[in-house]
Every structure is written in C-alpha cells, then in structure tokens.
Design a protein that fits this description.
Elements lengths: L9 H4 L10 E3 H4 L3 E2 L12 E3 H12 L5 E7 L4 H18 L5 H8 L16 E8 L31 H16 L3 E3 L2 E6 L3 H7 L13
Parallel strand pairs: 2-4
Antiparallel strand pairs: 1-3, 4-5, 5-7, 6-7
Helix pairs in contact: 3-6, 4-5
The structure holds the ligand C[C@@H](N)C(=O)N[C@H](C)C(=O)O.
Function: Catalyzes hydrolysis of the D-alanyl-D-alanine dipeptide.
Catalytic activity: D-alanyl-D-alanine + H2O = 2 D-alanine
InterPro entries: A_A_dipeptidase, Zn_M74/Hedgehog-like
Length: about 220
C-alpha cells in the first residue's frame, strides 16, 4: 500500500501557488453532468469549479462504461465555510479524545476536512463525485459520500478492504475515468478528486499549484 499523505502534511503547505486566474464556472449551466442537491446553498457556490476541472470531468464522463454517469455532489466551498467544517470536525475529535495534543487533532481532522489554508475546494479545484445509472440510481460505493473515518470504520478510504467486491469495482471505474483525465484522489475519501491544487501538485510532482483559494466573485 502507498503512503497516505494527509492534507496537514507540511510538504503540501510548502508548495507554491501560481494562480493561473482561470474562472470559476457553474457546472449547472453546462448541463451534461448530473447534479445532486444535497450540498446546494443559496448562492449556488457548491456548483462551481475551475473551468479546467469541469472540462476534465466532461471528458472523464465519456470514459465511463455504457449506462453509468457521474453524479456531482459538491465543488467550490467558500473559505469561511471550509473553516467552519474544519473547526466542527476538529471539535468533535477533541471532545472524543481529550488527551490528544493540538497537532494530533489537526492531523486526524485532515483525514476528512482540509485545513482551511490548504483546502482544494476553496480553490475550485476539488470535486466530490459518485456514480449513478442512466436513470439516476446511485451505485453502492461501499459508504455514502462524506462518510467520515469514524462512522465508516475506515471504509471511506479509497483502498479500504472492508467494502465488498462490487463497491471496490465501482470505485475502480470512478478512479480509472478520473485518473485518465489527470485528476488525483484524496486517498482517505473515495469521492474526493482534484486538479491544479497543491495536493495535485504534490501527487504529480508539479513544481507549483495553478489554482489557489479565492472568493466567488
Ligand atoms: C468534508 C469532505 N467532504 C471534504 O471536502 N474533504 C476534503 C478533503 C476537503 O475538505 O478538502
């Protein structure tokens, strides 16, 4: 098994960002990717991605087997919301593990939510995805999207061995299509994929990230 590099790893924070300035675009306007409303917000921020990420998703969808489609759950996340998610989960871990020092809480929290200053979703570079049939039925990927490591007993990890062979096969299908277009996975979450951010730069050995955190205009 490969080493899992967590978002809290100082090697990620050390990667420079040279933002290429590409626009955040609304995935709903393009129209050919199925969008799930579970993370929808009033401003529609959740449905935004950098243009280059959307282009790659459209291409990846063509690599899926007949009758299988991507289901988009969440893309862009404003920095303030990322901070809220991170603080909330870190707080839960702190409560459950009062003896943990702050560095351990931060590291454990980053298995599931990126530290706000790193966060690929706030750069419009990351997307949470699953697979559906042509008539919109979600395939069983072994856990629901956004299952955390505690509630799923680690089954949210992409290569977890406590999921059945069918779920493993579906994860492989998702992974093959997205890897083929250059996205990288966060190995603690089978549904989380990104392109152009610092985590992507580390995984692909790029010398800088091309998408950094920003506010939605
Ligand atoms: C909260 C979870 N779905 C998520 O988005 N995690 C990634 C790692 C993140 O916060 O960047």
């Amino acid at each position: 098994m490969h080493e899992i590099v967590l978002m809290s790893d100082p090697r990620i924070a050390a990667i420079p960002v040279v933002d290429c300035g590409e626009a955040l675009v609304d995935v709903r306007i393009e129209g050919s990717i199925a969008i799930d409303p579970r993370r929808a917000d009033h401003s529609g921020a959740f449905a935004h991605l950098r243009d280059g990420v959307l282009t790659r998703l459209l291409k990846a969808q063509r690599f899926l087997p007949e009758g299988v489609r991507l289901l988009f759950i969440e893309g862009y996340r404003p920095p303030a919301l990322q901070r809220e998610y991170f603080e909330r989960y870190a707080g839960e871990l702190r409560l459950a593990n009062p003896d943990w020092p702050p560095a351990r809480v931060r590291e454990a929290a980053s298995r599931y939510v990126s530290p706000p200053e790193i966060a690929p979703p706030s750069a419009g570079a990351a997307v949470d995805l699953t697979l559906v049939t042509a008539d919109g039925r979600e395939l069983d990927m072994g856990t629901h999207v956004n299952a955390n490591p505690e509630e799923s007993h680690g089954a949210c990890y992409t290569d977890a061995d406590n999921v059945d062979s069918e779920a493993r096969a579906y994860r492989r299908i998702l992974s093959d299509a997205l890897t083929a277009v250059g996205l990288v996975n966060y190995p603690t979450e089978w549904w989380h994929w990104s392109f152009g951010d610092r985590y992507w730069a580390l995984a692909t050995e790029a010398d800088h990230a091309v998408y950094g955190p920003r506010e939605l205009p």
